[in-house]
Each structure stands twice: as C-alpha cells, then as structure tokens.
Amino acid sequence: MRWSSVVLALLATTQIVSCDPLEKSENERRFQDCGKKMASKVYMGRDAQQSEAPWSVLFFLFKKDRKHATTCTGTIVSPRHVLIATHCFALLNEGQWEIEGKQLDRKHCEQDDYLITDDNILERIQIQSDGKAVARHPEKVTLVKACINRSAVKTANKYTNVTHQYYVDDFAIIDLYNDLPLNTMQQVCVASSESENAVDTELDYFGYGLNPPEDKGYDQAPDNTGVLRQETVKVIDKPMEDYYFLAKDPNSITVACTGDSGGGAVKDVNGQKTIVGVLSQTNCAHPKYRNDEAMEQYASVGYYNEDVCRLTGICADDQQYDKYHSGYTKKPKPPRPTESPVIPQRPVGGVAVDPNGTPGKSPAPRNQEATEESIDPTQDAPEDQSSLKVDPNGANSGYFHTILALVSVFVML
C-alpha cells in the first residue's frame, strides 16, 4: 500500500455452490462477537501487526502451472465467508467479465450472480493469515451481480472518457468448505446501509499490497506482498453510482497498491469494527499518478447488504434473516479427502488507476492487470516476504500494457 501506479489486476476465478449460510443462532452470535476492539494501528502505510486487523487475509489464486499466482486481500465476515473483489477472479474485457480467457457461461448465473463451482479453479485457491495457510479449495465463489449489464444513472453526463470499469460490480463472496478457527483470526461486522460510507467518513484500510519507492513503478520495486499495511482514508464528495464510493488519504501521502485489491475499509460502528468498503481500484502503478488527486474506488458494502444476507446468512436482524433463510438448519457434510498443501513462496498481486476526478475526466479506475510471480509450491512461505520480486509479465500483460499506453490508469487492484 503506497503511491504506485498499477495495472488493473483482473485475474479472475469464479466458483460457487449451494453452500452453508449461517444459521440464525450463528448470525446472532456473530453480531455479538464481530469487530471487537484490537490493538492500536500503524498509520501512513507502515507495517501493521496481524492483531491490528485479524479479519484481513492474504488470498492466492494459482495459475494452472502452480508456479504463478495472483494475490489479493480479503476480509473475514463469518467463520466461513470472506469478502473480496470480483477482479481477483475475472478479467474485464470490453465491459464483460472473463474467467481464464472465456466469457462467463450464463448457465452459471443465478439471480444476477455468477457462481464459480468448478473444482479446477477452486482447488487453486489458498487463503493465509499471519503467514500461515488457514483455508484452501473453497466450496464456491459468488461474483455478485456479475451477470447484469449496468449503465450510468447518477453519473450520467458527469464525466467523459469513462470506461466500462465504472459500471460493473466488483464485489465477491468466498464460501469456505470448513469453518475458520476464530482465535487469532476474527470476523469483522458488516455495514447495514450506504449511509456508513457518507462523504467525509474516515476509514482504516488494511492490505497486503506492494509498497514501491516513490520514484519507482510497482514492477520495478521489491515485492512487499505478505506484509500487512495500513492507511487512513476519507470518503470524498465526487459523484459515483450507488454501488461505489471514492476515498483518499487526506494528507496525500499513502494510497493502496497492487495486491491490496479486495481488502476491506473499516470504521467503528457502535464500538465494533465494521467493513464499509471493498477495494476495487486505485492510482498507484506509476509515480506520475501518485499526486494530490490520487484516490481509491471502493465497492459499497452497505449497498450489497441485502445480497450479503441472501447469500451468507449474515443479516442485520432476525426480520432480514427470515426473509431469506426462515427455518434453515445447517446440514452436516463429509470431510474432504486430505489434499497436499499449496504454499506459495513468492506471491504477487496487481492493479492500477487514473484518479483525475474533475468534471470532464473519470475519477474512477480505468483498467487493471493481474501481476504474477513465479512460485515454488514445494517450499513453505518465508517468514519475511518483503524481499520477494514481482514478475509483471503475467498472462495478458501485453494486452494490458497496450491499453495502459492509451489511457490513464485508475486501476483495479
């Protein structure tokens, strides 16, 4: 996390299955336990302790060769659900999401959502907390609202040169097969309405993204993936569709970067840490975009509150829960056969954005590329990954570098 121009990180995987929403009693316990106060934070993009954001996890989607991976940041919202960005699984091509070079198969669309249930994709997913693998091979991934086509409503005639990224949903939910042990990890609370991301709201963001030097692009800097970082941002007053909002560091010092995609921006709500935004795009790829106008685009969690309840059983109250899950009881499922762990040695993430948010220019990210890195799956992850090198020449890199040469980059991280 820091000033750095990035290429849109849209390497996507889609998976979903009829997984286990929370039972009503589990949802009630979740609301009592979520977002408990933790240790004081480290500001201005410096390293943070995992205990400061025990809900933040490092996400890996391995390529088929198991030697490269795309990384993002995710947020634990229940023992078996993680919020993340759609572009951590899918690539945006002319306004349409694609998974591993193929357009979304409409037969996997359900109530406007795209479900990833293909084990060939799911088995290549791993989630880490504090440098240790805590989950892999989820049961499904839901790309929320990925099957609908949107157009400008609130932002109609507000900006010119706006690309498709402005009008696609970049919000996803991972359904884990087994519950996470919430001891050193913790679930964060979930925003109940868009009012939680009102203008001037101050948020804390934690992510596992890169931290390149001020005069270097992300592809020329040491890879800091695996190091949790923190920044404070404030929601700014620029027109956006209801499912997004923009925020920036009031001091113009830090900005989210490659590998931060999908991470959660949180605030205190009634004394509990609550996720308000899921990071989508930013201005970090190149030093020239790291100016006073650099900003970050977030999916509004409050906007998707009904979808979160419908898909996960994480609901604001019993009335909302019964609307979708009345009488639901979780059924036992058999344990999975033991799978050999895939532990990354040198992971990387990616994204980039153009933040010129003045009338006549799009304030939102333009395009994004997943950065990849060689990984030795036979080695344990090193305790200190700050010296890892990023290989920016991943799949589709030529295509995206061409795009980035033509447009300014406000990138999906």
From TrEMBL:
NADP as UniProt keyword: no
Record's keyword annotation contains GTP-binding: no
Domain Peptidase S1 stretches: 42-313
A GO biological process held by the record: proteolysis
UniProt-listed InterPro entries: DUF316, Peptidase_S1_PA, Peptidase_S1_PA_chymotrypsin, Trypsin_dom
Signal peptide positions on this chain: 1-19
Organism domain of life: Eukaryota
Gene3D superfamilies reported for this sequence: Trypsin-like serine proteases (2.40.10.10)
Gene Ontology molecular-function annotations: serine-type endopeptidase activity
Keywords on record: Signal
Annotated region (Disordered), positions in chain: 325-392
Name of the protein in its database record: Peptidase S1 domain-containing protein
Species in which this protein is naturally found: Caenorhabditis remanei (Caenorhabditis vulgaris)
Lineage start: Eukaryota, Metazoa, Ecdysozoa, Nematoda, Chromadorea
